[in-house]
Design goal:
The protein is mostly helical. It has one domain (3-294). It has helices at residues 14-19, 23-42, 48-78, 82-101, 109-112, 117-129, 139-156, 173-202, 210-224, 238-249, 256-264, 286-294; strands spanning 226-227, 234-235. The chain has a two-stranded antiparallel sheet. Helix 3 (48-78) crosses helix 11 (256-264), helix 4 runs antiparallel to helix 7 and helix 6 runs antiparallel to helix 7. The chain is globular, with a radius of gyration of 19 Å. The two termini are 18 Å apart.
């Protein structure tokens, strides 16, 4: 058996199947998560569903952001830009952790926009590396801390020569990260599918009112864009602006694997953005990297 046998959408869960190979434990884990998401829609006001739409979209964005960071880290390494390499490597895993944590009902949405790095590590560890929902190896947290150390070393005490990469007690991010990121993306996708299913089964009727739009806009902006330091106004890209309107019109949260193709057409293809490119002209496609993980 595999995790895909317990959910309604076909998706890749090969890393999670390795982490939890026992069928009964897989079912137990899924049933526990289903119960948690059921209570989110049964025990809360109908408007609460909007927040889960925002959460699943944010998890999708965090997944793509993570993939973008990983691609940029590879380009930086090729160019021997070591400070940039460690910066992007660390944030690739940071955003992968965030993609999962945004789908935890115990974590208030508004608090996640300003979560500290240590809090993120602790939440991920307690939620996914120990206990009944152990989908990731505890080693993930050790690697997170090592990446943070390497990033800070180059940011605050840059060495006169670049020896950190070959030190035995450190890690080689470009070698270690792919499987870690893939696991995180699969965790986020699994959670998003269960949220999608819980909404379909248990949600209450939602009334679309001007007050509700203000509610959606406020929570959407907090986690999807930042206020300009001079104007104090949110700066939002066109893609997010469209999604804000769609969230109000279609409040159902959508699984990552269902949104994957559509968002691939939106990410990095507007405003001549482009993708990270190696010296030989080969592009690193974040969309392809994510699709390979969860598609």
């Amino acid at each position: 058996m595999a995790f895909k046998d317990f959910v309604k959408y076909n998706a890749n869960f090969d890393m999670l199947n390795k982490a939890v190979s026992n069928e009964s434990k897989q079912k137990q884990l899924i049933d526990s998560l289903k119960g948690r998401y059921k209570s989110e829609f049964v025990n809360h006001d109908p408007n609460y569903a909007y927040l889960w739409n925002i959460r699943t979209y944010k998890a999708l964005k965090e997944t793509f952001c993570s993939a973008q960071m990983f691609g940029e880290s590879l380009i930086a390494k090729e160019a021997k830009c070591w400070a940039s390499f460690y910066f992007a490597s660390y944030y690739a895993l940071y955003h992968a952790f965030l993609a999962c944590v945004f789908l935890l009902p115990e974590e208030p949405l508004d608090n996640l926009s300003s979560i500290t790095h240590s809090k993120l590590l602790n939440v991920f560890k307690n939620s996914f590396c120990v206990g009944k929902c152990q989908l990731a190896d505890p080693e993930f947290c050790k690697i997170f801390s090592l990446l943070k150390y390497q990033r800070e070393y180059y940011s605050y005490q840059m060495p006169p020569n670049h020896f950190i990469y070959d030190c035995e007690e450190n890690i080689k991010p470009d070698i270690v990260l792919p499987n870690l990121l893939k696991t995180c993306y699969q965790i986020a996708n699994l959670l998003s599918i269960l949220v999608d299913s819980a909404f379909e089964k248990y949600h209450k009727k939602i009334c679309r009112t001007p007050e509700n739009f203000q509610f959606v806009q406020e929570h959407f902006c907090i986690v999807n864009c930042a206020k300009h330091p001079i104007t104090n106004q949110y700066q939002m890209h066109y893609v997010d602006n469209v999604r804000l309107s769609e969230t109000f019109e279609y409040p159902a949260p959508v699984a990552l694997v269902i949104e994957l193709e559509h968002f691939s057409d939106e990410f990095g293809l507007y405003d001549k953005s482009g993708f990270p490119t190696f010296a030989n002209g080969t592009e690193f496609s974040p969309s392809a990297f994510v699709f390979n993980a969860i598609g």
